Amino acid sequence: MDLKDLFIAGGSFMWPLLIALLIGIAVAVERFFVFSKAKLNVNKFLEQLGGYIRKGDLKGAESLCDRTRGPVSAILRAGLLRRDKGLADVEKAIESAGSIEMAHLERGLVVLASVSSIAPMLGFLGTVSGMIRAFGEIAAAKNVDASLVAGGIQEALITTATGLIIAIPIQMANNYYIARIGNFVTDMEEASMFLVDQLADLEHLKQL
After folding, report:
1. Mean pLDDT of the chain
2. Does some domain include residue 159?
3. Residue 51 contacts by C-beta under 8 Å, 6 or more apart in sequence?
4. What are the pLDDT digits (tens) for 20-49?
């Protein structure tokens, strides 16, 4: 029995399961490219940024952030744009930009979580539907024959298996992206503290 035959044997609930699978794959792939583009060697980036700031070249630091993709450079650029307003405003700008970047990173994860939870439920619903059909055929038949109920039981097992097959990798992808977001948060916190310290040191040197 090939995939087409299994799909047909699974009954009508295979269609919503297929839709859930396609949505989950689309979101997972889209998030993969987003996270890949956001990847950054933070230590190297901060070393370059610190070099500009220590020389007093804040325009150069801002330009470096413009050329660098990802949430870390985005929040630091927001802070640098408010450098003339004082460190308190720099911190507020970084915090606001961080919230925006977090929203961008988390976009779509609720969809993955929904697919991973709904797919097994759809599979179980297909199981119930298949068993209802199987017992209905038993009740309607005068003589019980295994072939009468085989179709319903097969439908029940296929939808259950399909729901789990969809849910497990989608949940793994969701967990992976949540872990990646945690790493980004750590990097953003480290970078924001670095920028504030560097700007504070620069301000102190100007006052000497």
Report:
1. 88
2. yes
3. none
4. 999 999 999 999 999 999 999 999 999 999
Provide the pLDDT for residue 147.
64
Q: How far apart are CA 138 and CA 44, in angstroms?
A: 70
Residue 5 lies in a domain: no
Query: Do 153 and 131 touch, CB atoms closer than 8 A?
Result: yes
- CA dist., res. 2 & res. 5, Å (int): 5
Indicate the number of domains in the chain: 1
What is the residue range of 68's domain? 12-200
* Tens-digit pLDDT profile for residues 107-153: 999 999 999 999 999 998 888 887 887 777 777 766 666 666 666 67
Query: What residues contact 132, with CB distance under 8 A and at least 6 apart?
Result: 152
pLDDT band at 181 (very low <50, low <70, confident <90, very high): very high
